[in-house]
Design goal:
Helices cover 24% and strands 22% of the residues. The chain is built from two helices and four strands, in the order βαββαβ. It has a two-stranded antiparallel sheet with strand order 1-4. It has a two-stranded antiparallel sheet with strand order 2-3. The protein binds iron/sulfur cluster.
């Protein structure tokens, strides 16, 4: 699995970080960083929740 974020849509509100801090991190510079672009399968359900709850629909999972 690969996690893809459309940074043109992302508004760095850190909703995804609240759900999966292992993968998403909004830093002091106010940018979102993807900590693991190819996260392990056990994180899939949490990442799917982040996809659903991102207010900007900026996150996608590619297989
Ligand atoms: S939840 Fe969406 S808009 Fe918010 S920081 Fe994450 S990717 Fe960006």
């Amino acid at each position: 699995m690969r996690v893809v974020v459309d940074f043109d849509l992302c508004e760095s509100n850190a909703v995804c970080m609240g759900i999966v801090p292992e993968v998403f991190e909004v830093r002091d510079d106010d940018f979102l960083y993807i900590l693991q672009e190819n996260p392990p399968e056990e994180l899939r359900s949490k990442i799917e929740e982040a996809v659903r709850r991102c207010p900007k629909q900026a996150i996608a999972i590619e297989d």
